[in-house]
């Protein structure tokens, strides 16, 4: 099959996407597919043999912050890349994390162009990227999620904005610490754990840089776990143990900054509960293919769903490949399963 891997892009998760695309491309080649890679951030369309040049910095992202866009990056949007894709492409492997690659925009363009693609469709992608909407759906479908409040910033970014929380809101969220984060980012981009009221203003404005809607969420002390769901089937639970601090961008993508246990050392009842909730959250949002559901376990072992990722990372430190390995799958097995789960009946 001739497969185009879309990666890179212009979101804050650009370099992680490049690393995902590199791993996926290598696996697809080993599975016998013909592969081309498209960096939608620069417009570079490369044959598999030219992949190394597209990666730029194969050593990975800075441990301190998301990578900056490369020289020559474009902001023309995804439509020209979809429209200019070779006509003989049989499948697009979506490796674009965050932004228009994960929020349904790319999926809508591919649907309109009648090009099959991996992963979730337009609706699931849009719902999962919007944390406030997905949390409302979780509440409706009985998936526990931390309580939250929302604050909208003005449309004009230069207009003064002085958000705050009422004392009763802080009390309803369990008091400090609180989690302040953008509504539609991933990889903990723009997130702050606020320890006192004096830190709120700075946290609001940090999150505001990534979108108008900011969420303030109850902080759940305890353990960080995740459930990957592949074709409506939960994989083994992974526990993430950051080496100091919380599971932020640095701890996610710096080798050795976090430890992982898979399967997680949990009571069987807790494992089964997490897996059931992971599947339920994915069904509620109508995901397809592979998705990853992130949870916090409080000190009593009660789970709280944070979000669903419809284009989860596939790098060497990513959680989905770890869960798949614990289920007896190689990386190539996982990539094959993602390809096989894609609807291929669309014909241009």
Automatic annotation (TrEMBL):
GO terms for cellular component: cytoplasm. It catalyses: 2 D-alanine + ATP = D-alanyl-D-alanine + ADP + phosphate + H(+). Its main location: cytoplasm. Its EC number is 6.3.2.4. Mg(2+) 1 binds at residues 294, 307. Pfam families: Dala_Dala_lig_C, Dala_Dala_lig_N. InterPro entries: ATP-grasp (IPR011761), ATP_grasp_subdomain_1 (IPR013815), D-Ala_lig_Van_CS (IPR000291), D_ala_D_ala (IPR005905), Dala_Dala_lig_C (IPR011095), Dala_Dala_lig_N (IPR011127), PreATP-grasp_dom_sf (IPR016185). The keyword Cell wall biogenesis/degradation applies. Pathway: Cell wall biogenesis; peptidoglycan biosynthesis. Binds 2 magnesium or manganese ions per subunit. Mg(2+) 2 binds at residues 307, 309. Keywords: ATP-binding, Cell shape, Cell wall biogenesis/degradation, Cytoplasm, Ligase, Magnesium, Manganese, Metal-binding, Nucleotide-binding, Peptidoglycan synthesis. GO terms for biological process: cell wall organization; peptidoglycan biosynthetic process; regulation of cell shape. Residues 135-340 form the ATP-grasp domain. Signal peptide: none annotated. It is found in: Cytoplasm. One of its GO terms (molecular function) is metal ion binding. Its cofactor is Mg(2+); Mn(2+). The active site is at 13, 187, 318. The keyword Ribosomal protein does not apply. It is an enzyme of class 6 (ligase). Belongs to the D-alanine--D-alanine ligase family. HAMAP family: Dala_Dala_lig (MF_00047). Cell wall formation. This is D-alanine--D-alanine ligase. It comes from Eiseniibacteriota bacterium. The lineage of its organism: Bacteria, Candidatus Eiseniibacteriota.
């Amino acid at each position: 099959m001739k497969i185009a891997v879309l990666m890179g892009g212009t979101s804050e998760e650009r370099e992680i996407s490049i690393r995902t695309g590199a791993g996926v491309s290598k696996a697809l080649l080993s599975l016998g597919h013909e592969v081309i890679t498209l960096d939608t951030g620069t417009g570079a369309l490369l044959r598999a043999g030219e992949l190394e040049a597209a990666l730029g910095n194969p050593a990975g992202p800075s441990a301190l912050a998301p990578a900056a866009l490369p020289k020559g990056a474009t902001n023309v949007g995804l439509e020209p890349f979809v429209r200019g894709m070779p006509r003989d492409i049989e499948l697009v492997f979506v490796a674009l994390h965050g932004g228009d690659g994960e929020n349904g925009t790319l999926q809508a363009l591919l649907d309109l162009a009648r090009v099959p693609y991996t992963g979730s469709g337009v609706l699931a992608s849009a719902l999962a990227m919007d944390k406030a909407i997905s949390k409302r759906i979780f509440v409706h479908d009985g998936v526990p999620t931390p309580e939250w409040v929302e604050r909208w910033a003005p449309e004009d970014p230069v207009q003064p904005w002085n958000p705050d929380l009422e004392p009763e809101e802080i009390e309803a969220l369990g008091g400090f610490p609180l989690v302040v984060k953008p509504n539609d980012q991933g990889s903990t981009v723009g997130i702050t754990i606020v320890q006192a009221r004096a830190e709120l203003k700075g946290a609001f404005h940090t999150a505001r840089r990534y979108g108008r809607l900011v969420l303030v969420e109850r902080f759940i002390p305890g353990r960080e776990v995740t459930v990957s769901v592949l074709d409506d089937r939960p994989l083994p639970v992974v526990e993430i143990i950051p080496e100091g601090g919380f599971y932020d961008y640095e701890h996610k993508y710096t080798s050795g900054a976090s430890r992982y246990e898979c399967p997680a050392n949990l009571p069987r009842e807790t494992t089964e509960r997490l897996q059931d909730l992971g599947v339920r959250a994915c069904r509620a949002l109508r995901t397809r293919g592979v998705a990853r559901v992130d949870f916090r376990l409080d000190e009593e072992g009660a789970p709280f769903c944070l979000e669903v990722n419809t284009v989860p990372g596939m790098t060497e430190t990513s959680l989905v490949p770890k869960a798949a390995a614990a289920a007896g799958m190689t990386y190539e097995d996982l990539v094959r399963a993602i390809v096989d789960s894609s609807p291929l009946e669309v014909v241009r």
